[in-house]
Amino acid sequence: MAFGSRPAGSGKHRGSSRLSRKTAGYAGIAAIATTGVVGSLAAPAFAADNHSSSAPENGLGAVVVAEDLAGDIAEQAESQERVADQAAAKAQAEAEAKQKAAESKRLAEAKAKAERDAAERAAREEERKRLNTFVSPLDASYVSTQYKAGGGMWSSGSHTGIDFHAASGTSVHAVGVGTVVEAGWGGAYGNNVVIKHNDGTYTQYGHMSSLSVSVGQQVTPGQQIGLSGSTGNSSGPHLHFEARTGSQYGSDIDPIAYLRSHGVSL
């Protein structure tokens, strides 16, 4: 009976030793798999436990642990790669969006500038046309006395201009762009204005009741220069209009032909 019995303490010691070696083996395998040196360190761990009857169990467990750890590491690497790819794709998308927005802004600004330039050109052209346009000195009027009409009312013996029918106080306009060279009392012409135009010709407006311009002032087509009346040598309210090649009396030309040559229909 005594020879068949095994000391309790000795059995416990061996069991504890095998368990410790098995656990240590797993831990070693885990550490080795993590650092990538399984091949160089796994053999001593298995050899140390080679005499134990549980060696196959230990080897299988180590392989399972190593495979699990390798799988976890690979999965983690793939996850990190996916995150990196997503971040790169997001950054690229944001960069492309910014570039597209910048290009859209540039195109919009270029279009707006082109439209402003076109509008400015159109306005300048319209102003140029307006300034080169001539108008009648009176709106909705007609010629009541023709050019070169004879009679004792004129010192030269004939009419040096034309008379437009107009009630007193009717607005009188400059027929074209020019500079006022005379504005005030003109003797037989009464209150009168003389304008020098850009083409070198002159126009005169006589018998006005009041004047709206002064000498040296620039005027434009259709601008009011005074009001019609009957001042000076006049038989009643009207506008005396002359066209001249010079500023002085005696240089008159046919006013109707002059206005028509500048596009004014009478």
From TrEMBL:
Keyword vocabulary terms for this entry: Hydrolase
Stored PANTHER family: MUREIN HYDROLASE ACTIVATOR ENVC (PTHR21666:SF270), PEPTIDASE-RELATED (PTHR21666)
Main EC class the enzyme belongs to: hydrolase
Enzyme Commission code(s) on record: 3.4.-.-
Entry-linked InterPro entries: Cell_wall_metabolism_enzyme, Dup_hybrid_motif, M23ase_b-sheet_dom
Record's keyword annotation contains NADP: no
Gene Ontology molecular function, alphabetical: hydrolase activity
Upper taxonomic lineage: Bacteria, Bacillati, Actinomycetota, Actinomycetes, Kitasatosporales
Listed name of the protein: M23 family metallopeptidase
Regions of compositional bias (Basic residues) in chain numbering: 11-20
Region (Disordered) location: 1-20, 97-125, 225-245
